[in-house]
């Protein structure tokens, strides 16, 4: 009886703590991705409204953009709408790149048109209608977007848990895990993994492998595997500038004691802290990489130094992967600030594959 009560109190406290942590993260991070720069105080909220119209939202996943999303923003005076008949009354209009399959509607004066894209450019040229659109802002994972919406951000960790790295290391009896669901990619991810697996053991989880990792989410699966494995592949499906997804940021969250092996954006080093990951492009061949992994993985000092370094950081990636909220909150802030983009962007170029490289590691 006493035990149960204690457990219940403990659980309640834990849940409250987690909620507080999430609220804290939302309020400190959604609107501004530079943790150092603080937000200006919100302007008088009740005195103006902005409507952000998602004129061409992505088809996937259903109900992804919830009407009350913007409640979580620092600025509460924006609302989103999906009702195209409100075009005339909309302050900002969002078009997802992939959904632009029509000629532009009438652009009302003082309306901000936002071109949005969260997927890697895939060497396909943009659709034929896009050139008729006059966009004012871009919103994407690219750092040069007006509304920069990364899949995650790395911050210095404020939690300094004392861990027994020796015992963490001792638990790790396996080398490399890979969780993957998209089996064939243009950037020959699977081919690289196949070659790497000739030199070091790789266990493949998910749709493309033999092992299944049960858990209510991919993140929980990663957490479980991180206890037994030394390394986890964080291989993006594309090798494009700034394109780092939750595949990578997940592994920087708290209590994931695993070293990521990253194959992704050519400028990955700009986004991740030094000596906390292994970068595939540093190696001439899968064989060389495997050799290095064995050196690190076989040397407790070397390996745990990396873990310790990684523990100095944490990633804030949206807990529900609702990357869209960040973007909309940020867009709302920029509307409030009457932000004027001064970028002259070649949209077609920006969207085409020219920010991507072909793999040279095979
Ligand atoms: C904000 O707006 C409300 C209603 O329009 C007004 O009563 C209040 O004085 C304003 N506050 C500030 C700080 O301007
Ligand atoms: C803001 O929106 C509310 C509700 O939609 C409306 O009643 C109010 O008049 C709007 N205020 C302004 C300044 O447009
Ligand atoms: C556009 O905005 C400017 C400045 O905010 C304002 O002076 C102008 O009247 C607006 N034009 C229209 C058509 O709303
Ligand atoms: C850490 O774990 C190792 C192996 O599990 C154990 O031998 C050692 O005593 C532990 N060290 C501390 C400081 O608890
Ligand atoms: C990261 O590490 C490399 C090699 O260890 C070093 O050359 C580079 O200066 C470091 N970069 C930063 C930002 O510390
Ligand atoms: C392990 O790595 C450390 C740090 O680089 C090095 O000093 C040590 O000699 C290595 N141990 C072995 C057994 O190679
Ligand atoms: C564009 O705006 C940024 C800040 O908003 C400013 O630092 C930069 O100098 C501007 N560039 C041009 C070409 O006006």
Automatic annotation (TrEMBL):
One of its GO terms (molecular function) is fucosyltransferase activity. Its EC number is 2.4.1.-. Residues 171-350 form the Fucosyltransferase C-terminal domain. Keywords: Glycoprotein, Glycosyltransferase, Golgi apparatus, Membrane, Signal-anchor, Transferase, Transmembrane, Transmembrane helix. Its main location: Golgi. Residues 51-152 form the Fucosyltransferase N-terminal domain. Pathway: Protein modification; protein glycosylation. GO terms for cellular component: Golgi cisterna membrane; Golgi membrane. It comes from the Eukaryota. The chain crosses the membrane at residues 12-30. It is found in: Golgi apparatus membrane; Golgi apparatus, Golgi stack membrane. It is a single-pass type II membrane protein. Pfam families: Glyco_tran_10_N, Glyco_transf_10. Belongs to the glycosyltransferase 10 family. This is Fucosyltransferase.
